[in-house]
Amino acid sequence: MTHPERKPPIHTLHPSAKIIVTMAYIIVVASCDSHEINKLLLMSVYPVYIFIMGEIPVGLILKRMLLALPFILGVGILSEGWMTFISLTLKGCLTISAALLLMATTGIDRIAMGLNSMKVPGLLILQLLLTYRYLGILVEEVYKIQDAYMLRAPGQKGIKLRVWGSLAGRLLLRTYDRAEKIHEAMVLRGFDSAYAFKPAASIALRDKVYMFVWCILMLSAGVIL
After folding, report:
1. What's the gap between Cα 110 and its chain centre?
2. Max alpha carbon distance in the chain (Å)?
3. Which pTM value belongs to this model?
4. pLDDT of res. 36
5. Fewer CB atoms < 10 Å away: N or C end of the chain?
């Protein structure tokens, strides 16, 4: 009988191995030429594999990708020609999905542990953690401001362009105030800049095999195809 809380094996892989594979994937995808649409479609095998093996709900990733989709399409629109537009859009979707899947199968705390094992400076890892926490506050404040605006303008579709500047300023002030309070609470609990990260376990054989196989496949796809 399967334990109800048992995670798929890919969730328990060493975070450093998954970080390296994700970095290799992003580099290979970003290095594809604008006319290599077939190669980009082939590179979609990796995120599909993670979706299946990690049992990740597709809707969970798609909701987060929708936040970045306007920026992806904006970059694509500035390109010259349909092939370049399609290529840039695919690259954006594939790289962002790979990063989101890394987060979904690993978690920000284990990613920090993996980066620490890779000898990444602690200050950079700390900045990553704080930025991640701050983005959550930012999204929360955006929804609060949007709800407050719509309550004051019933029946109006969307937010008028002329008030975007003032709302953005209010958003910055509110999130900065929230971030200051969080930092004060962290300091009161003994936090300082010399944050000690919990060490990750040593890389097992299966982690090395996973990392080696996927890196070879990705590099081969980037060089041979």
Report:
1. 14
2. 60
3. 0.75
4. 79
5. N
Question: CA neighbours within 13 Å on the CB side: how many for 75?
Answer: 12
SS3 string of 159-184? CCHHHHHHHHHHHHHHHHHHHHHHHH
Residue 210: partners with Cβ closer than 8 Å, 6 or more residues away: 13, 17, 18, 21
Can you tell me the distance from the alpha carbon of 149 to that of 205, in angstroms, rounded to the nearest whole number?
55
Confidence of residue 106 (pLDDT cuts 50, 70, 90): very high
Give the span between the Cα atoms of 75 and 96, in whole angstroms.
14
Between helix 45-54 and helix 82-106 the angle, nearest 10°, is 30
When pLDDT is averaged across residues 151-168 and rounded to a whole number, the result is 72
Per the CB < 8 A criterion, the answer to whether 10 and 54 are in contact is yes
| Residue 195 DSSP label | -
Please report where in the chains the tokens 């929708």 appear, as a residue.
Answer: 66
Q: How far apart are CA 3 and CA 137, in angstroms?
A: 35
How far apart, in whole angstroms, are the C-alpha atoms of residue 152 and residue 172?
20
Question: How many other β-carbons are positioned within 10 Å of the β-carbon of residue 204?
Answer: 13
pLDDT in tens, 57-104: 888 788 888 777 777 776 666 666 777 788 888 888 899 999 999 999
Residue written as token pair 């590179």? 43
Compute the mean pLDDT over every residue in the chain, rounded to the nearest whole number: 80
Picking from 30-34, 189-193, 213-217, which range would have the lowest pLDDT averaged per residue?
Answer: 189-193
